[in-house]
Design a protein that fits this description.
The complex is a heterodimer. Chain A contains 19 helices and no strands. Chain A has a domain of 178 residues. Chain A is mostly helical. In chain A, helix 3 packs parallel to helix 6. Chain A is globular and about 65 Å long. Chain B is an alpha/beta fold. Among the domains of chain B are: 317 residues, Rossmann fold (3-Layer(aba) Sandwich); 49 residues, no CATH class. In chain B, the strands form 4 sheets. In chain B, strands 1-14-13-17-15-16 form a 6-stranded mixed β-sheet, with helices on both faces. In chain B, strands 2-8-7-4 form a 4-stranded antiparallel β-sheet, with no helix packed on it. In chain B, helix 3 packs across helix 6, helix 13 runs parallel beside helix 15 and helix 14 packs antiparallel against helix 15. The chains are: A mainly alpha, B alpha/beta. Chains A and B meet through helix 1 and helix 2 of A and helix 5, helix 8, helix 10, helix 11 and helix 12 of B. The complex binds iron/sulfur cluster (2 copies). One iron/sulfur cluster binds next to helix 8 and helix 9 of chain B. Chain A: Keywords: Cell inner membrane, Cell membrane, Electron transport, Flavoprotein, FMN, Membrane, Phosphoprotein, Translocase, Transmembrane, Transmembrane helix, Transport. Chain A: It is found in: Cell inner membrane. Chain A: Belongs to the NqrB/RnfD family. Chain A: One of its GO terms (cellular component) is plasma membrane.
Chain lengths: 360, 604
């Protein structure tokens, strides 16, 4: 029995509620930069998803006849909401967010038994469901008009969009301002005949799009650095994921720079950094041993690059994370550390069949 | 790589040792009444050898060791045995155990000392017998009988004796203070144990946050230069649990104790300073273990410090002397805050394994917050000094998947509590591991119940056989003695017709030979049984719960050992008789002698 606990004696955040609170704090640079470039729609996403997260968690807990208060205090539903909200296109409709959060909190998390029991990353389950069910809405990114610019949506327009009052995505006010693509998306649909340099020279995206995405990625990186500094996440997953992406991207870029993005392009133009620090590191659904985390992160990096290069979706962090979630039990069995006093680590599952012996 | 020479993980809890290291070790007032539990050590409880009403002196043996893994208990005050019965003892579940209660007048203190021995001259058998008769056990917490460990040589070759002065757990400073004041004696005790175990060198492992103890040791080593055995002092930065036996060996020698093995398997013996001091006092001063140094600390005490207290002293007396503020006391802990146990009452006796009492206030060691779900953050893995995956063990322990837990090396967990200390979800991980371990052991015990019954039956058979063999041997000896005067002249062969048990010389030779072979085999069987028992008892005795847990298993092994000894005794009786017969009547018959191992009647 350990009668002393780190949380009583150290200023490191060492209980789950505070861990999550620090996590939320670390998302602030990313969210602020997103808002700066893409407008208030980002905030509405985050706030709505966070609120739904808490509400749905409380609802399900009540239905499951569990105490609500201490569980909510772990802040994990809020984190899921914020992370999903930050991944959605700015100004996503309320209803979509609700669908996504039901998938995330109710299905992916609570139906599996609540925090700690979910094999899949809840935020990414919600995201993937929305992406498959509403591909159009989910790939429309606002042009980076900036928070204060007149070209962006007014508050009223935003409200109308979010509550679904405006009739559909492609009509209504400011549709031009809203139709947009991410750099990854654009580059993916680049005509084959065009060389990369020519493509970028043709200004395929609204002004400042690339710079905006780069700034956002760097802001997430800053938040990630805070997580690392506070030891809330290990270095293993982000490093191995980004390295795997860099190696693959570097390889294909070296082979054919005119049709492939550079490593920097792949790192900085999509959800790679956000995914590496905030999504893939979700401890519950990630591999758990130190070595396992390296394999897990590398696996995500490889899958992201495969889907980006060969798949139908421009970005792939959600799918890659979910696919690797499947492999976690397997990775965990094969990456046990070497216990002191053992010549080599255990591998795999070799449960002795005691009952057989008794039966014979 | 520097890391290779170290154990993985570890944590840095606040030491909180300053409060109890301000003053020298005080001597606690002589108690008027002591309660001496019979099971203050790993293994079988001792058996009382005094009666109610009997007068005893300080140091009189009041209970005798039972079986191989056990230790004597001695009266710790002068007075009268007033009761032998069940009393509450320090135990995590608040168990009661048979105790001997002695009452004195609080003034008279007459010692029953054994003769002083010079360990440099005395032979091993004498020294073993002395340790045996002094009730010395490991004082670090596990309470393993020292004489069993001292006889390690019969089982393993030892090259290094490690003095475990790390004392890495917060609060505890008993060894630190003992070293400051008795460094020379501790070193002397180490040399004594090194001699017994055959160790070629002594290494002292100590955390570098004890500069005064280190200086005292340096002085002691310098003063003892004349002695041939090299002693090296190795201070290292504090990190819990560097005082864990396996971790310390890894850190000092870069050797790993094999899973389910013992330090002795890799040629190492570990003792903590208090134990060495007690061993030396038992040999040099003839003083049995009747007192120990105990740290009294915690913010609910006005005068924390270390005291030398008689065993059996009620804790509340010691705490009162140290200025206990009842209102501020939130929890009383015996041992350290990481591996110790919380006590539910204050009037429990100090036992051999009580190294520390923490009278903690609410602010100091608040009750743990509610357990939250595991988020698999891996903090526990980073802290684990045994290279385990505590988070996985936790899942398996919780869902009672014992096979998987064992597969993930549950039994390599040293229950250090580092994982619980860092877990952000406040999961009392160690409690889960302990529960799983004892459940697994209980299952194994259930499964082998029939086997145990068989062993007990075998033991009874062996005893009957041994008695028969001895009787036969005595009868023969008498017969020979009776006819010696006549056969002296007539010389040997006439005796052949006398007894059917006495064969012809030719067959007698063959018989002798086969008996000798049988004797060798029986001796080997005894040694093997001893080895198994020593191993199992040593590897299952854990800090914080010296008794209980694996009683069943150890008891069974004790039965097997007793059986092997009975067999050996029977064969030796027969052998002696056969030798007599073969030697004929030329010499005086030697009485059937039983081996040194079996001369004490030790049946469980
Ligand atoms: S430290 Fe606690 S919450 Fe984290 S993985 Fe270990 S058991 Fe789970
Ligand atoms: S208690 Fe066991 S599992 Fe936990 S850190 Fe210590 S050795 Fe590792």
């Amino acid at each position: 029995m350990s009668l002393m606990h780190q949380s009583q004696v150290s200023r490191q955040p060492t209980d789950t509620g505070r861990v999550m609170a620090w996590l939320l704090l670390s998302t602030l640079p990313g969210i602020a930069t997103l808002t700066w470039h893409f407008g208030l729609g980002v905030l509405s996403n985050v706030l709505l998803a966070g609120a739904f997260g808490i509400g749905l968690e409380a609802l399900v807990l009540r239905l499951r006849r569990r105490t609500v208060r201490p569980v909510l205090a772990d802040n994990s539903a809020l984190v899921t909401g914020v992370l999903l909200g930050a991944s959605l296109p700015p100004g996503t409709s309320l209803w979509l967010i609700l669908v996504g959060m039901v998938a995330a909190i109710v299905v992916a998390k609570q139906l599996y038994g609540g925090l700690g029991q979910n094999p899949f990353n809840p935020a990414m389950v919600g995201y993937a469901l929305l992406l498959i069910s509403f591909p159009a809405a989910m790939t429309q990114w606002a042009a980076p008009h900036g928070l204060l610019s007149a070209d962006g949506l007014s508050l009223g327009e935003l409200l109308a969009r979010v509550t679904g009052m405006s009739s559909g995505m492609n009509t209504g006010p400011g549709v031009d301002a809203w139709s947009g693509a991410t750099p990854l998306d654009a580059f993916k649909h680049k005509p084959d005949a065009l060389l990369a340099s020519e493509f970028w020279a043709s200004n395929p995206l609204p002004d400042g799009t690339q710079a905006a995405w780069r700034n956002v990625a760097l802001a997430w990186l800053a938040g990630g650095a805070l997580l690392l500094y506070k030891r809330l996440i290990g270095w293993q997953i982000p490093l191995s994921m980004l390295t795997a992406m860099g190696v693959l991207a570097g390889f294909s870029y070296a082979v054919d720079p005119s049709h492939h993005g550079s490593p920097a392009f792949h790192w900085l133009s999509g959800a790679a950094v956000f995914g590496a620090f905030f999504i893939a590191t979700d401890p519950v659904s990630a591999a758990t041993s130190r070595k396992g985390k390296l394999y897990y992160g590398a696996g995500i990096g490889v899958l992201v690059m495969l889907i980006r290069e060969a798949g139908a979706y421009p970005d792939a962090v959600a799918f890659a994370v979910l696919l690797m979630n499947f492999t976690v039990p397997f990775i965990d069995y094969y990456t046990q550390p070497r216990t002191q006093g053992h010549a080599r680590p255990n591998r795999g599952i070799k449960v002795t069949r005691l009952d057989d012996e008794e039966a014979s | 790589m520097a890391r290779a020479f170290d154990f993985p993980g570890g944590i840095h809890p606040p030491a909180r040792k300053a409060a109890s290291t301000q003053h020298r070790i005080a001597t606690a007032a002589l108690p008027r009444r002591v309660i001496l539990p019979l099971g203050q050590h790993a293994g079988q409880p001792a058996e009382p050898c005094v009666e109610v009403g009997q007068r005893v002196d300080t140091g009189t043996r009041v209970a005798k060791a039972q079986g191989l893994i056990s230790a004597d208990v001695h009266a710790s005050i002068t007075g009268e045995v007033v009761a032998i019965g069940s009393y509450p003892v320090p135990h995590p579940a608040g168990r009661e155990e048979t105790c001997i209660v002695i009452e004195g007048d609080g003034i008279r203190d007459d010692w029953a000392l054994l003769p002083s021995l010079d360990w440099r001259r005395a032979d091993h058998a004498t020294l073993h017998a002395r340790l045996d008769a002094s009730g010395v056990v490991g004082l670090g917490g596990a309470g393993f009988p020292t004489q069993v460990k001292a006889r390690v040589r019969e089982r393993n070759a030892i090259d290094t004796l490690i003095v475990n002065a790390a004392e890495c757990e917060p609060y505890i400073s008993a060894d630190d203070m003992a070293l400051r004041e008795h460094a020379a004696d501790v070193l002397e005790g180490a040399r004594l144990i090194a001699k017994l175990s055959g160790a070629q060198r002594i290494i002292i492992g100590i955390e570098d946050d004890k500069p005064e103890a280190i200086r005292a040791l340096e002085r002691g080593i310098a003063a003892g230069q004349a002695h041939p055995l090299p002693i090296s002092l190795k201070p290292f930065p504090a990190r819990y649990p560097s005082g864990g036996e396996k971790q310390l060996i890894k850190r000092l020698l870069d050797r790993e104790v094999p899973s389910r093995g013992l330090p002795a398997d890799i040629g190492v013996l570990c003792h903590n300073p208090g134990t060495l001091l007690a061993a030396l006092q038992a040999v040099r001063d003839g003083r049995p273990l009747v007192s120990r140094v105990i740290t009294l600390t915690g913010e609910a005490l006005a005068r924390p410090g270390n005291v030398e207290a008689r065993l059996g002293t009620p804790m509340n007396e010691l705490l009162a002397t140290a200025g206990l503020d009842d209102d501020r006391l939130a929890r009383l802990i015996m041992g350290g805050p990481m591996m110790g146990m919380e006590l539910s009452r204050l009037d429990l006796p100090v036992v051999k394994s009580s190294n520390c009492l923490i009278a903690a206030t609410l602010d100091e060691l608040p009750p743990p917050p509610a357990e939250q779900p595991c988020i698999r953050c891996g903090a526990c893995e980073d802290a684990c000094p045994a290279g385990l995956l505590p988070q996985q063990l936790y899942w398996f322990a919780r869902s009672r998947e014992h096979e998987k837990a064992e597969l993930f090396n549950l039994f390599d967990c040293i229950e250090c509590g580092a994982c619980s200390y860092v877990c952000p979800s406040h999961i009392p991980l160690v409690d889960y591991y302990r529960a799983a371990k004892s459940e697994i052991r209980a299952n194994a015990f259930e499964a082998r119940k029939a086997e145990h019954a068989k062993h007990r039956f075998e033991f009874r058979q062996a005893r009957i056989e041994r008695e028969a063999a001895e009787k036969e041997a005595r009868r023969q000896a008498r017969a020979q003695a009776a006819k010696r005067p006549t056969s002296m002249a007539a010389n040997s062969t006439t005796s052949a017709a006398e007894s059917t048990a006495q064969p012809q010389p030719a067959t007698a030779d063959a018989d002798l030979k086969s008996l000798r072979i049988a004797q060798a085999a029986a001796k080997a069987a005894v040694r093997k049984a001893e080895k198994v028992l020593a191993r199992v008892s040593q590897s299952t005795s854990h800090k914080g719960q010296p008794q209980g847990q694996s009683d069943g298993e150890i008891e069974d092994l004790e039965v097997q050992l007793a059986t092997a000894r009975e067999n050996l005794a029977a064969i030796e009786a027969r052998l002696a008789a056969a030798k007599d017969a073969a030697a004929g009547t030329t010499q005086a018959p030697t009485p059937p002698s039983r081996s040194a191992d079996t001369d004490q009647e030790r049946t469980p």
